[in-house]
C-alpha cells in the first residue's frame, strides 16, 4: 500500500500557525519550489499534498499534462509546472492537489516548503511578460528570496 498523504487542509493546522490573529491584511500561501523558482499558491486552493502516487499517461494531451491519477475514486489531471516553464521534468517530485472553481487539479512540483502568512501590502504586481502567465504577483521574503504568486486560475486556461 502506498503512503500518499502528507498534508490535508481538513487536518490539524500546521504548527507555525499558532497565532490565530490572522487578519485581512495577510494571506496564507503554500510555498513550493519548481524549476529553481519559489512559488506561493493561495492556501484557499490547497486540498492536500501527496507523494509516491502513480501517474497514468494519456495520449493526445498537451505536453505539460503528465497524465491523471486516481485519488480515492476521483480522477485528477496532473500538470507539470516545470514543463509549463519550458524546463525538463524532474525525477523527484510531489503533487499539490488544488481546488480551482470546484475543479480538482494536481500540480507536479519539485518540493513543498511550508505554509506562510504574507502581508498583503508586500505583494507587488508581476512584470508584464508572456512567460509570466502563471504569476500574478511577487514579494520579497527576505534573505534574498522572492516568492512568485502562483495564479491558480490561469492554470485552467493554459492552451
Automatic annotation (TrEMBL):
Entry-linked Pfam families: CheW
Single GO cellular component term: cytosol
SMART domains: CheW
Name assigned to this protein: Chemotaxis protein CheW
PANTHER family attached to this UniProt entry: CHEMOTAXIS PROTEIN CHEW (PTHR22617:SF23), CHEMOTAXIS SENSOR HISTIDINE KINASE-RELATED (PTHR22617)
Annotated organism of origin: Candidatus Intestinimonas merdavium
Superkingdom assignment: Bacteria
Any GO BP annotation: signal transduction
Domain CheW-like: 26-159
